[in-house]
Amino acid sequence: MAFSLNKIMLIGNLGKDAETRFTTNNLSITTFSLATTRSFKDKEGSWQNETTWHNLVGYNLSDYYKDNLKKGKKFYIEGRISKRDYIDKEDIKRYVTDTIVEKLIPLDSTAASSGNTDSSSDKVSEPQVDISKEDNDDLPF
After folding, report:
1. Phi then psi dihedrals of residue 117, to 5 deg
2. What gap in Å lies between CA 117 and CA 125, rounded to an integer?
C-alpha cells in the first residue's frame, strides 16, 4: 500500500452564514465558504492582497457550530480536499473542489472563549494550547 496524504489547514473568515440540509438518512450537511488572504509585494514594491475562497462541507456538525458559523467570523479549519462533478441545468458538466471539514476551531475572541471541538464531537471543550518550553534544551534552534 502506497502512502499518501490529503490534508489542508486554513485560517480565514466566513463569507456567508452556513447552510445546513439533511439527507434522507438524516445526515446533516453544512456548507459554508471561507476566505483566506495572502499579502505580497508586487513588481513596483506595493503591497497587494490576494483572496482565495474555499468551499467547505461539514458532516454532522454539532448545533453549536450550526449556530455560530456566521459571516465574518474567523475559524481554523483542518480537513481534506475532495473533487466532484455534476451536470447543471443546461447539461454542462461542472467541476467543484470542496474541503471536507475534519476539525473546526473558532478564533474570534467571543467564540474562542466559548470553547472548541472537532467536527466529529458534540462536546465543546476549552481551547488547549501547549506553548511550554520544557525539555527543549536539546533542540538545535
Report:
1. -165, 165
2. 6
| 56 touches 35 (CB < 8 A) | no
- Residue found under cell 476566505: 35
The residue length of the chain stands at 141
Topology of the domain covering 8-116: OB fold (Dihydrolipoamide Acetyltransferase, E2P) (2.40.50)
Distance CA 141, CA 139 (A): 6
pTM score:
0.70
DSSP state of 114: T
pLDDT per residue, tens digit, the chain (141 aa), is 789 999 999 999 999 999 999 999 999 999 999 999 999 999 999 999 999 999 999 999 998 888 899 999 999 999 999 999 999 999 999 999 999 999 999 998 764 444 444 444 433 333 333 334 444 445 444
Q: How far apart, in Å, are the Cα atoms of 125 and each of 8, 36, 79, 94, 117?
A: 23, 26, 20, 40, 6
* Cβ contact 17:70 at 8 Å: yes
Neighbouring CB atoms inside 10 A of 34's CB total 22
